[in-house]
């Protein structure tokens, strides 16, 4: 438990990654009284996932950044269930040529959960890695910004890495990595298996090291960090939505796909308590 204190009296060096005794508990034992603000299950008829369909699902203010006009997203049927299939063409990397990107807004707030399901296609070659959707707030920093350039917001996307290793890929003002800060989730994705990813972000009291990120995979908590100073003293920005960002990379050809790939997504939900 973190007690309120003078924000100038505590250094990040005095704090560490806190893995609580609750790790390993089920999500159901932690979450109650959900107030759902976004829920999308891709129930449309099979075919291209168009900008109009996206805005019908996610809101008219959802900016489309990459991939839909290029036809890299489709609704497909698996069993009797519609899911979103995102394509990653052979020999390509980066968001301009693989995957899709868009942002969806939620009412600004201090705390949100994001949950969705995903499955990697048969014989998926993970290469060096790629991005997966997460929450965002403030200016939603990405793209190898410095810590000071990231201080006016956050993003909490995931990545898959070589051989399917899963990480949380976090941007915020106190990061020390040149791009996003990587936190291992001790989970390895396997192709053809559905996974449910859930993240919980609670912003800090501005200036204090009491912000929280938690991650569950398939209902089991795999990560918790409760000493994050997302916002400096006087900052008032909030969590504003989800950044649906999935692509191979990385920014050079060492991240490129070795063959045509696909990831399937379904059952998105954003809520608070």
Average pLDDT, to the nearest integer?
A: 91
Main beta-sheet annotation: 9 strands, antiparallel
Q: In the CATH hierarchy, what is the class?
A: Mainly Beta
Work out the helix count. 1
The total strand number stands at: 16
Shape: globular
Number of domains: 1
- Helix amount: under 10%
β-strand percent reads over 45%
Order of helices and strands: EEHEEEEEEEEEEEEEE
Structural class: mainly beta
Q: Which CATH architecture is right?
A: Sandwich
Instruction: Give unreliable regions as ranges.
Output: 1-22
Q: Look up the CATH topology.
A: Jelly Rolls
- Rg over C-alpha atoms, rounded to the nearest angstrom: 18 Å
Distance between the termini: 20 Å
SSE blueprint and pairings:
Layout: E1 35-40, E2 47-48, H1 51-58, E3 64-66, E4 73-78, E5 81-88, E6 100-109, E7 111-120, E8 129-138, E9 153-161, E10 165-171, E11 181-188, E12 194-202, E13 211-217, E14 220-228, E15 239-246, E16 261-272
Antiparallel strand pairs: 1-16, 2-4, 3-6, 4-5, 5-16, 6-15, 7-12, 7-16, 8-9, 8-15, 9-10, 10-11, 12-13, 13-14
Describe the structure.
- By secondary structure, this protein is mostly beta strands.
- The chain has one domain: Jelly Rolls (Sandwich).
- The protein has one helix spanning 51-58, and strands spanning 35-40, 47-48, 64-66, 73-78, 81-88, 100-109, 111-120, 129-138, 153-161, 165-171, 181-188, 194-202, 211-217, 220-228, 239-246, 261-272.
- Strands 1, 2, 4, 5, 7, 12, 13, 14 and 16 form a nine-stranded antiparallel beta sheet that branches. Strands 3-6-15-8-9-10-11 form a seven-stranded antiparallel beta sheet, with no helix packed on it.
- Strand 9 and strand 10 form a beta hairpin.
- Mean pLDDT is 91; it is low at 1-22.
